[in-house]
Design a protein that fits this description.
Length: about 140
């Protein structure tokens, strides 16, 4: 496995719940884990993240403020996937609420529009996740 240049590490509150959410529901793969440390390195269709249930001590150098729900305020993690529907099906089957239902987005890149269809969901700690599939390009 080749490591990405940027790999977010999410501080979580319940390792088992988060590992279940990311692996069994969303379909992430465990690349490696340290169960004794409540840590896992996960991948999904080319994306990589780490989840870690460390201590939430306010004097820890890893935290910039008090950790409370929803975590990750002001940031969302965007994952490009082959198809969003299988993920939506698993979320619905497991009664996870979708924050923003699937819709098309078109963004200008120089002289063309790049299209994606995506949705937003929050993980058990409130981190905002966006899953997108490519729907092509079109001229301006």
């Amino acid at each position: 496995m080749k490591f990405n240049k940027l790999i977010p590490e999410l501080s979580i509150t319940n390792f088992r719940n988060s590992l279940n959410f990311y692996t069994r529901i969303l379909g992430f793969r465990i690349e490696y884990q340290r169960e004794e440390s409540n840590f896992a390195y996960l991948s999904f269709q080319g994306s990589q993240i780490m989840i870690d249930q460390g201590n939430d001590e306010e004097d820890s150098p890893w935290f910039t403020g008090k950790l409370e729900y929803p975590r990750g305020r002001g940031i969302h993690f965007q994952f490009e996937v082959d198809k969003i529907q299988p993920i939506l099906d698993k979320l619905n089957k497991n009664n996870f609420s979708i924050k923003v239902e699937p819709k098309e987005y078109w963004f200008r890149k120089e002289n063309e529009l790049i299209g994606m269809k995506g949705f937003l969901v929050m993980d058990p700690d409130g981190y905002l996740l966006m899953f997108n599939e490519d729907i092509g390009t079109k001229p301006l």
